[in-house]
């Protein structure tokens, strides 16, 4: 298929996520050992898409690689996505193509920069 063509798919997705919020407490009864196979399967499915990355364009390849590599090393999906966003914005800016970056990506990158800077700044300032 061609995917969703209207905003209705977004409304359905948002509604289902809202419904899922009420089921979140049930996740506490599932032990980590039971969830691990599902996480491995999701990781496998995610890695099958790596072949679609344009590895010849380093402004795409480096952020993608950082996103993939940082996640397991930091045990954090957030850190991986943040590293990829910051790398993408930095590389595009260094190449003189900053105008190609959407303002939402700039805002997200700024928030990730703040996210990564908070701990070192607190340690430096002794807070």
Protein model, in words:
It comes from Streptomyces apricus. The chain crosses the membrane at residues 6-27, 62-89, 101-118. GO terms for molecular function: purine nucleobase transmembrane transporter activity. One of its GO terms (cellular component) is endomembrane system. The protein has helices spanning 8-21, 32-47, 58-74, 77-94, 103-125. It is mainly alpha-helical. It has one domain (33-125). It starts with 7 loop residues before the first helix and ends with a helix. The mean pLDDT is 92.
| Gap from first CA to last CA | 53 Å
Uncertain spans, ≥5 residues at pLDDT below 50?
none
Mean pLDDT: 92
Oligomerization: single chain
Number of E-type strands: 0
Number of discrete domains: 1
CA-atom Rg in angstroms: 18 Å
Question: How many DSSP helices?
Answer: 5
Keywords: Membrane, Transmembrane, Transmembrane helix, Transport
Main location: membrane
Membrane topology: Multi-pass membrane protein
Transmembrane segments: 6-27, 62-89, 101-118
Structure summarized in a few sentences:
InterPro entries: Azg-like. The chain has 127 residues and is mainly α.
């Amino acid at each position: 298929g061609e995917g969703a063509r209207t905003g209705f798919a977004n409304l359905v997705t948002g509604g289902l996520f809202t419904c899922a919020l009420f089921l979140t407490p049930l996740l506490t009864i599932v032990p980590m050992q039971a969830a691990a196979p599902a996480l491995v399967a999701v990781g496998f499915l995610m890695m099958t898409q790596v072949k679609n990355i344009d590895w010849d364009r380093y402004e795409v390849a480096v952020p993608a690689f950082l996103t993939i590599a940082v996640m397991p090393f930091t045990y954090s999906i957030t850190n991986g996505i943040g590293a990829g966003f910051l790398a993408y914005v930095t590389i595009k800016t260094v190449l003189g193509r900053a105008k190609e970056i959407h303002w939402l990506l700039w805002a997200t990158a700024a928030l990730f920069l703040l996210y990564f800077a908070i701990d070192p700044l607190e340690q430096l300032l002794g807070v």
